[in-house]
């Protein structure tokens, strides 16, 4: 076998379509097997333009004249499959064009598949992000942001001492009877409205709602960020709670009466529980606020002596005398009133 | 911890893509169901098959029943076509080493959608 014969054999057998064309007339001079297999029309057109009607021949000639090379891509259907073939045309000399064709169908199909897959993944990523934001929002409802950040970074929350802070404890009068006598779902809906309003009021004065237990509502000023006027913030909040309820009672059939206790001191804040997280605060100030609340008549605010000393100059406050407070001994208790 | 999907079990996208391609190849050559795809653009077709296989295996695609019904409503798909597609699907799964019981799970998922597609 001569070298030429071997060359021709190779050229015929490779998986790349090869054809030689007359540069001027664009007639085929040679087509290898692969080329024939791909482009075997019934009429075996011997002219490039006949074979690829969509090919821009003038542009091809121009590009070839300028750069000696022209590339393009053609798509056609074989049976019902779209084949994509990359054409690469090189001017071998003045008379002959070498046309090399590669089947890039698989590459195109894979590209489409990657597009499809990445779109699915991106959509899922967006959904996960949205879900994460929802979870974050929920967690921020039960703990202060700084505590949440600590929890997110370290997976645990170190109990932290906050000193001093002011605590407000609110309790509704006759709530148990109310639940028993009214439609409970109506009561709870109203309670939810009221708590939401309390949250908004507290927010205005920099208070952090810690929790609600049934009809008890606890909020704190000076936590997690220290506030120098925490006592005034809690007093303002308490006054507005009462004001809000008074106004609400004017237009609602159900009358909501509250008792409030205010105290200052130190508390420890921490996440409690492993599976069911609760952010809670502990300390004498919490217990004292709870005791003081019991001294209040409906819609009244009882204040610890220490807090009263701070509020005296700016608030309407009256000494109720010394009382024996369970667990705290004898202490002066004050009454805070709305002076506006 | 959520249960591992078949999609994950069989190596995620890098493996599932092979199942998709062989499914695609067989489908196009199949004269029973192939004609439904005569006029479908190649990238749409690949997109469709990728999502189809991924959703059956519990991968990152999912169609609601309504979407499926709507997407196929303009096609005259009969039980015989659905049966044929099941055969093609089964073939592609077996060919890529999906265990027999998992093939049954996937095919059962597929069969559940028959009322949405046929009719």
Structure, explained:
The complex is a heterodimer of chains A (340) and B (119). With 340 residues, chain A is of the alpha+beta class. Chain A has two domains: 3-103, Beta-Lactamase (2-Layer Sandwich); 158-337, Alpha-Beta Plaits (2-Layer Sandwich). Helix content of chain A is 44%, strand content 32%. Chain A has helices at residues 3-13, 33-38, 48-51, 57-67, 105-142, 145-154, 175-181, 184-204, 230-251, 284-295, 305-311, and strands at residues 17-22, 28-31, 69-78, 81-91, 96-103, 160-172, 207-213, 216-221, 258-272, 278-282, 300-304, 316-325, 329-337. In chain A, strands 6, 7, 8, 9, 10, 11, 12 and 13 form an eight-stranded mixed β-sheet that branches. Chain A has a five-stranded antiparallel β-sheet with strand order 2-1-5-4-3. In chain A, helix 8 (184-204) packs antiparallel against helix 9 (230-251). The longest helix of chain A is centred in the middle third of the chain and has 38 residues, at 105-142. Chain A is rod-shaped, with a radius of gyration of 42 Å. Helices cover 66% and strands 0% of the residues of chain B. Chain B has helices at residues 6-9, 12-29, 42-56, 65-72, 79-95, 100-112, 114-117. In chain B, helix 2 (12-29) packs across helix 5. The radius of gyration of chain B is 14 Å and the shape is globular. Classes of the chains: A alpha+beta (340), B mainly alpha (119). Chains A and B meet through strand 4 and helix 5 of A and helix 2 and helix 3 of B.
Task: Report the span from N to C terminus of chain A.
Answer: 115 Å
Output the CATH homologous superfamily of the largest domain in chain A. Answer: Nucleotide cyclase, GGDEF domain
**Average pLDDT over all residues of chain B:** 88
> Which band does the percent of strand residues of chain A land in?
25-35%
C-alpha Rg of chain A, in Å?
A: 42 Å
Instruction: Indicate the CATH topology of the largest domain in chain A.
Output: Alpha-Beta Plaits
Main β-sheet description of chain A: 8 strands, mixed
- Main beta-sheet strand count, sense and barrel state of chain B: none
């Amino acid at each position: 076998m001569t070298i030429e014969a071997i060359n021709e054999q190779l050229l015929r057998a490779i998986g790349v379509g090869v054809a030689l064309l007359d540069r001027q007339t664009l007639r085929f001079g040679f087509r290898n097997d692969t080329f024939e297999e791909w482009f075997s029309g019934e009429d075996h057109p011997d002219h490039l333009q006949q074979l690829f009607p969509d090919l821009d021949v003038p542009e091809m000639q121009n590009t070839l004249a300028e750069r000696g090379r022209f590339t393009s891509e053609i798509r056609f259907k074989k049976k019902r499959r779209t084949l994509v073939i990359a054409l690469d045309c090189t001017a071998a000399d003045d008379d002959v064009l070498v046309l090399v064709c590669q089947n890039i169908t698989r590459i195109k199909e894979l590209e489409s598949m990657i597009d499809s897959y990445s779109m699915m993944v991106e959509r899922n990523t967006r959904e996960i992000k949205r879900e994460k934001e929802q979870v974050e929002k929920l967690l921020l409802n039960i703990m202060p942001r700084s505590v949440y950040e600590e929890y997110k970074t370290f997976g645990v929350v170190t109990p932290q001492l906050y000193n001093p802070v002011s605590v407000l404890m609110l309790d509704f009068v006759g709530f148990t009877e109310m639940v028993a006598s009214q439609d409970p779902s109506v009561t709870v809906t109203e309670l939810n409205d009221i708590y939401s309003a309390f949250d908004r009021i507290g927010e205005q004065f920099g208070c952090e709602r810690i929790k609600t237990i049934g009809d008890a509502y606890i909020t704190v000023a000076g936590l997690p960020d220290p506030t120098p006027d925490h006592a005034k913030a809690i007093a303002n909040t308490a006054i507005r709670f009462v004001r809000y309820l008074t106004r609400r009672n004017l237009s609602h059939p159900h009358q909501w009466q509250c008792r409030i206790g205010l105290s200052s001191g130190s508390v420890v804040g921490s996440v409690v529980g492993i599976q069911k997280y609760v952010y809670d605060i502990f300390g004498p100030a919490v217990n004292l606020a709870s005791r003081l609340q019991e001294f209040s008549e409906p819609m009244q605010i009882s204040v610890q002596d220490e807090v009263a000393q701070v509020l005296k100059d700016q608030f309407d406050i009256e000494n109720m005398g010394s009382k024996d407070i369970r667990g705290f001994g004898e202490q002066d208790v004050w009454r805070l009133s709305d002076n506006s | 911890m959520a249960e591992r999907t078949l999609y994950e079990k069989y190596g995620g996208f890098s493996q599932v893509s092979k199942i998709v391609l062989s499914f695609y190849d067989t489908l196009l050559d199949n004269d029973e169901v192939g004609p439904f795809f005569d006029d479908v653009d190649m990238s749409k077709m690949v997109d469709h098959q990728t999502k189809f296989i991924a959703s059956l295996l519990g991968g990152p695609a999912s169609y609601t029943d309504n979407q499926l019904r709507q997407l196929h409503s303009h096609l005259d798909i009969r039980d015989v076509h659905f049966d044929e597609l099941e055969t093609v699907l089964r073939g592609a799964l077996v060919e890529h080493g999906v265990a027999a019981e998992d093939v049954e799970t996937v095919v059962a998922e597929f069969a559940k959608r028959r009322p949405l597609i046929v009719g």
